[in-house]
């Protein structure tokens, strides 16, 4: 049976991991490659690198990080952040990334999803959706630019369009839950997962192992992503998997 | 030396890195001469079946791969590279494959998520195959929307379960194919790759 995936996410800026990382067994907690290898050893099922570099140089550095990571780890990894053309995708995939995450650029140019899927295969294209509940609509709205800009687009509609255009997977972040550590946004995750036929990675709000169990059962997610709780060792990947096994959720 | 056949379809770097970690000499190459001179070869691939076959034909590498296989040297197709070994695929129309293994490639159809993406457990159909020497079945990483239906039961070495039995590893003589990504499949994936490299004549490793 297909197992549920646990995915740590690393924010990388100019080739260095930013945001807190609190590991004792690392020579250099800012090195994304070293952290990636550590998560691989700890049983992570995949990794996501989010490139938050603002400069051309920073993005060029990311290619080198991807190249080094590909040689070090034995699990798949996705690279997202600032990818705006199929040439960008090609460079990262050639360097060894397994999947490409696109967010703002996909909203601006939905053809990027179509073209990426056609050229590189649907399995490479992860459409990242940042969603926030819009009380007026009674449903969720898509935001871009790291959650700063509203789009007027309904998250469920965009999720379906992304699937139709060939996305292989959705990375769904709840802006309402993100940073709260109160648990994933189960209604959002279940609504999106139930309306598409492609896998959904839930993101935002993870604070404990219990939250992962909820998002896989009630939230109908295929994978769960978290950053700070893993970086700060509040919960290890092993803890999460043990808890999931105890709940009868199939994990590797 | 193990040739990693470069025909413009993806994940070459991770395959070559994984083999280097196992201590193999590798060359990512699109040269028919270099491929034919190699002791073993890997046919990787991500993307669409039709595009892959077109690239192979346009570069003449389809003939090279067939010739390599006919020499009885170990050849491993990975993911799309495994599917290409079969007669045909129905991915975006009907496309002829390399025809090294009888069978066809069809889309997952049903009320479940496609692609089949993530870690799934292997069942060895032929545990005595040298590829499985010293290994216990476990989880490996799959990502695919189409799956192969081998015509001959004896070509099927391992399966996984995704709403039906799904072809995971095929083999005939020194020809092998893995639907999952061994280079992305943790320790078991690396062990399977290692066992494949052991089939390659020792002088080259």
Automatic annotation (TrEMBL), chain A:
Pfam families: His_biosynth (PF00977). The keyword Lyase applies. Its main location: cytoplasm. InterPro entries: Aldolase_TIM (IPR013785), His_biosynth (IPR006062), HisF (IPR004651), IGPS_HisA/HisF (IPR050064), RibuloseP-bd_barrel (IPR011060). Pathway: Amino-acid biosynthesis; L-histidine biosynthesis; L-histidine from 5-phospho-alpha-D-ribose 1-diphosphate: step 5/9. GO terms for biological process: L-histidine biosynthetic process. Gene3D superfamilies: Aldolase class I. It is found in: Cytoplasm. Its EC number is 4.3.2.10. The keyword Amino-acid biosynthesis applies. It catalyses: 5-[(5-phospho-1-deoxy-D-ribulos-1-ylimino)methylamino]-1-(5-phospho-beta-D-ribosyl)imidazole-4-carboxamide + L-glutamine = D-erythro-1-(imidazol-4-yl)glycerol 3-phosphate + 5-amino-1-(5-phospho-beta-D-ribosyl)imidazole-4-carboxamide + L-glutamate + H(+). Keywords: Amino-acid biosynthesis, Cytoplasm, Histidine biosynthesis, Lyase. PANTHER family: IMIDAZOLE GLYCEROL PHOSPHATE SYNTHASE HISHF, IMIDAZOLE GLYCEROL PHOSPHATE SYNTHASE SUBUNIT HISF/H IGP SYNTHASE SUBUNIT HISF/H. Belongs to the HisA/HisF family. IGPS catalyzes the conversion of PRFAR and glutamine to IGP, AICAR and glutamate. The HisF subunit catalyzes the cyclization activity that produces IGP and AICAR from PRFAR using the ammonia provided by the HisH subunit. Heterodimer of HisH and HisF. This is Imidazole glycerol phosphate synthase subunit HisF. It comes from Cohnella zeiphila. The lineage of its organism: Bacteria, Bacillati, Bacillota, Bacilli, Bacillales.
TrEMBL record, chain B:
Its main location: cytoplasm. Transmembrane segments: none annotated. Heterodimer of HisH and HisF. This is Imidazole glycerol phosphate synthase subunit HisH. Keywords: Amino-acid biosynthesis, Cytoplasm, Glutamine amidotransferase, Histidine biosynthesis, Hydrolase, Lyase. Residues 4-196 form the Glutamine amidotransferase domain. One of its GO terms (cellular component) is cytoplasm. It is found in: Cytoplasm. The active site is at residues 79, 181, 183. IGPS catalyzes the conversion of PRFAR and glutamine to IGP, AICAR and glutamate. The HisH subunit catalyzes the hydrolysis of glutamine to glutamate and ammonia as part of the synthesis of IGP and AICAR. The resulting ammonia molecule is channeled to the active site of HisF. Pathway: Amino-acid biosynthesis; L-histidine biosynthesis; L-histidine from 5-phospho-alpha-D-ribose 1-diphosphate: step 5/9. Its EC number is 4.3.2.10, 3.5.1.2. The keyword Cytoplasm applies. PROSITE patterns: GATASE_COBBQ, GATASE_TYPE_1. It catalyses: L-glutamine + H2O = L-glutamate + NH4(+); 5-[(5-phospho-1-deoxy-D-ribulos-1-ylimino)methylamino]-1-(5-phospho-beta-D-ribosyl)imidazole-4-carboxamide + L-glutamine = D-erythro-1-(imidazol-4-yl)glycerol 3-phosphate + 5-amino-1-(5-phospho-beta-D-ribosyl)imidazole-4-carboxamide + L-glutamate + H(+).
